[in-house]
Design brief:
By secondary structure, the chain is of the alpha+beta class. It is built from three helices and three strands; from the N terminus they run βααβαβ. A three-stranded antiparallel sheet has the order 2-1-3, covered by helices on one side.
């Protein structure tokens, strides 16, 4: 199995509590960088420092950046280079490129620099009036806020059986129908008038011959 190779990137990250001016001065010395090159290294863009180096060289670069007060990002190399790189850390300025593409950083890497993070102000909330008790604890009745009883002076109780709606409209009177012309037939009586059954005439078949 071939040895793993690593890529080294830098995007201007300064370690916590490190002095920015001192860090930039140290990085400028390591890279032998002028003002323009230094501004590029600390622009916030991803700068490729080394590609496809072995673990020992990657660790050497990481320690050099850490000693300067900066943070280098080490990732597994995607493609091995045809020629191994064994130059010491003092020559890393020669290999710095101006690539601006973004790459996948290792798990746990800071995606934002400290000056890019949103500063959330601390809120001082007075919780002295809040008391935490067990849900099974008995609360002193004196501490409970009892609301005043509602006013029921306008409410009265009617007698049992009293009409609860005396103002309702009068009921509609029954409809009076004249049924004097109607009679009721006896059980089994024919309800329809008998009519003479008409038999249709026989059809004329004289023009039909059997052959």
């Amino acid at each position: 199995m071939a040895d793993l190779k690593y890529d080294i990137y830098f995007r201007g990250e300064i370690l916590p509590e490190a002095d920015e001016a001192q860090v930039k001065a140290a990085i400028a010395k390591i890279f032998k960088a002028d003002t323009t090159k230094l501004a590029q290294l600390f622009s916030g863009k991803v700068n490729t420092i080394k590609k496809s180096v072995d673990k020992a060289v990657a660790a050497k670069y990481q320690q050099a950046f850490k000693k300067a007060g900066a943070k280098a990002v080490i990732t597994l190399a995607k493609e091995p280079m045809s020629e191994p790189i064994n130059e010491p850390a003092k020559n890393i300025a020669k290999e710095t490129t101006s690539e601006t593409r973004w790459d996948i950083l290792p798990s746990g890497s800071d995606l934002l620099k400290p000056d890019e993070r949103q500063q959330v102000p601390e809120v001082n909330i007075d919780t002295s009036a809040i008391k935490m008790v067990s849900p099974f604890a008995e609360v002193d009745v004196a501490e409970k806020s009892i609301p005043p009883a509602p006013d029921t002076s306008h409410i009265s109780v009617a007698e049992a059986g009293a009409d609860m709606n005396p103002d309702r409209s009068a009921p509609t009177p029954d409809l009076q129908l004249d049924l004097s012309d109607y009679t009721v037939a006896e059980p089994g009586a024919e309800l329809s008038d008998k009519k003479e059954k008409k038999i249709p005439p026989a059809p004329d078949t004289n023009h039909i011959k059997l052959v």
